[in-house]
Prior knowledge:
It is built from 17 helices and no strands. The relative contact order is 0.19. The protein has 372 residues and is an all-alpha fold. 76% of the residues lie in helices and 0% in strands. The two termini are 39 Å apart.
Amino acid sequence: MKRKEKMKYTENETISQKQLFSQASVSMLGLSLMAVPEFMRFSLKTMIFGLVLTGLFFWVQSIYFVRICPCYARLCTSFGNWVGKLFGFIYVSYLWFSQVVLLCLIADLANYYFIERIDKSWLILLTGIVCAIGMYQNVEKRGRIGEIILPVILFFILFMLFLAFRDFSFEEIIRESRRKMTLRELAEAFYKIVCLFLPVYFFPFILNQTKRNTSAKKSMNGSICLNLGILLLALFLLLGLLGREGYMHKKYPMIDLMSGVNLSGDFFQRSDLFWSGSLLFCLFYLCGSIFFYQHELLKRCRLERGTGIAYASAVLFSVFAGKLGFSFEIYRTLVRYGYGIVFPVLILAAGIWYKRRKMGRREQIHEENTDK
C-alpha cells in the first residue's frame, strides 16, 4: 500500500510537455513586454537579426539541456557536496535578486495603474505572502495553472495588439529599414536579448520533472519563439504608432501606448485594463515561479532549511530597496556582467564534469567486472 502511495506521489511530481510550454510562456511574457525600453536605441533591422540569432542560439542550447538534465536532478550527488552547493548557490542568488526586482516592479505597476493610495511596501508584502502560499505546492499544480491561463492571456494580448494596429503607419518602419546595421551593434543586441531570457538556463532543472523529457526541447523552443515573436510585434507597434522619438523617454511605453487604445463605439473606456491586467498577472506568475523553484533548488543542493531565510530576506530587502540604494540599474549590471557570462559557462562546465564522472564510473564498473 505504501509503495502504491509513493508511486502515485512521484507521478504527480511531473508535468506534461504542454504544461511545460504553458508555464514557460506565461512566465516569460511579462519579461518580454516589460523589456521593450532596453532595445530602443537599436535599429529594427538589428533587432530582427538579433531575435533570430537568439532563437537559433537557444535551439542549440535546448539539445544540450536535454542531454545534461540528469545531472541537475541531484546536484550534490552529480558534482559532489561542495561543488553541488556552489552551483545551487549561484542559481539561487540570481533568483533572489530577480525576486527583489519583480516585487518592486509589481508594486510599482499596481500602485500606478490600479491601487494609487496604498503604500508600495504593503503591496510588496501582500505579493510576497500570496507567492509564498504556492511555494510549497507541487509542480503539477503550477503546470495546470499555466495551461489554463495561457490561452486567456494570449487572447487579451493579441486582441489589444490587433486593436492598436488599426492606426499603424509604415512611414517610420520604412525610415528604420534604411538605418545601417553594424556587427558590434548586432552583437550587443544579441547579448542583451540572451540576458533577458536567462531564465531559459533553468530548463535543465525543470526537465527532470517533465514527462518524456528527451523530446521536451520542442516545448522549450516553442515558448522562446512565442516570446521573441511578441517582443518583435511590440517593437513594430511602437515604431509604427509613436515613432522612435515618441517612446524613447517613456518608462513603460507599451502600457502608455495601450492606454490610448479603445474599442469602437466607446462602450468600454478602459480597454487598456486587459493589457495591464494580463501583464501584471504574467509578472505575478513569474514571481511565484521564482519562489517555487528557489525552494526546489535549495532542496536539490541539500539546503532546504534556508528556504525561509531566502524568502524573508528577499521580501524585506524589496521593501527597503530604495532606501538601501538598490535599483534596477544595479540588477541590470549584475545580469550583463555577471550572470549573463556565468550561466553559459556553468552549463558547459556541468556537461564536461558530468561526462567525466560518468566515464569514470563506467571504467570503475569495467575494472570490477574484469577482476571478477
